[in-house]
Amino acid sequence: MPRSVNAVASKARRKKVLKQAKGFYGKRKNVYTVAKNVLEKGLTYRYVGRKLKKREYRALWIVRINAAVREQGLTYSVFMNKLAEKNISIDRKVLADLAMNEPESFKKLVDSVK
After folding, report:
1. CATH number of the domain that 83 lies in?
2. Who contacts 58 (Cβ-Cβ below 8 Å, separation ≥6)?
3. How many whole angstroms separate alpha carbon 76 and alpha carbon 86?
4. Is the pLDDT at 34 greater than 90, yes or no?
5. Strands (DSSP E) found in 11-89
6. What pTM does this model have?
7. CA neighbours closer than 13 Å in the CB half-sphere of residue 56
8. Number of domains in the chain
9. What is the extent of the structural domain holding 94?
10. DSSP alpha helices (H): ranges in 1-114?
11. Exposed/middle/buried for residue 99 (C-beta within 10 Å: 0-12, 13-18, 19+)
């Protein structure tokens, strides 16, 4: 019995990888084995980058909140603790936005917590 290779499926698989590698430089875009390895690494970086993005934004928000709260005579940790004690649940993204764009309303929030 002759060997069955299913050329249609294997060609489609290679075509899919090469399509994703479009725009890469040199052999990375048109040699299947090179493109497959580079693409796999790129997809890994993409996954990790999404996690790092969240981490970096949270750190940025904390820095902004801390800077705004220190002008009012508190520290970040004390401020967040007092928010929790008063059952005020505003996430860091919104707090940082208030601190940057609406300092008056942020000052009122800090005064209500003091």
Report:
1. 1.10.1900.20
2. 92
3. 15
4. yes
5. none
6. 0.78
7. 6
8. 1
9. 10-113
10. 7-20, 32-71, 76-85, 92-101, 103-113
11. buried
